[in-house]
């Protein structure tokens, strides 16, 4: 059985300790399966990834907000 996956593009601009400004281009995926919410994110150009995991959030919108914060914290 296939389930719909919602995809989002989330650019995060940061200034690195060297003073260089870089942008992490995150691809975020959020899905619902068997009444549970799952999320995943990756920023390929910097090799960053948040593996698929079951979110403890009650809905996709809240799960998206939480994973966006994780993406932002991993963009350094």
What characteristics describe this protein?
76 residues; alpha+beta; 1 helix; 20% helix; elongated
Tell me what you see in this structure.
The protein is of the alpha+beta class. The protein is built from one helix and four strands; from the N terminus they run ββββα. A four-stranded antiparallel β-sheet has the order 1-2-3-4, covered by helices on one side. A hairpin with a 2-residue loop joins strand 2 and strand 3. The longest helix has 15 residues. The mean pLDDT is 95.
- Secondary-structure element pattern, one letter each: EEEEH
User: Mean pLDDT, rounded to whole units?
Assistant: 95
Low-confidence stretches: none
Total number of beta strands? 4
**N- and C-termini, Cα separation:** 38 Å
Q: What is the helix tally?
A: 1
Summarize the topology.
Elements: E1 5-15, E2 21-33, E3 36-43, E4 48-54, H1 60-74
Antiparallel strand pairs: 1-2, 2-3, 3-4
Outline:
This protein is α+β, with helices and mostly antiparallel strands and 76 residues long. The chain is built from one helix and four strands, in the order ββββα. The protein has one helix spanning 60-74; strands spanning 5-15, 21-33, 36-43, 48-54.
């Amino acid at each position: 059985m296939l389930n719909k996956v919602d995809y989002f593009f989330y650019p995060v601009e940061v200034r690195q300790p060297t003073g260089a400004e870089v942008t992490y281009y995150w691809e975020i995926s959020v899905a619902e399966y068997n009444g549970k919410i799952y999320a995943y994110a990756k920023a390929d150009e910097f090799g960053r990834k948040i593996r698929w995991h079951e979110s403890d959030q009650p809905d996709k919108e809240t799960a998206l907000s939480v994973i966006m914060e994780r993406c932002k914290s991993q963009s350094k």
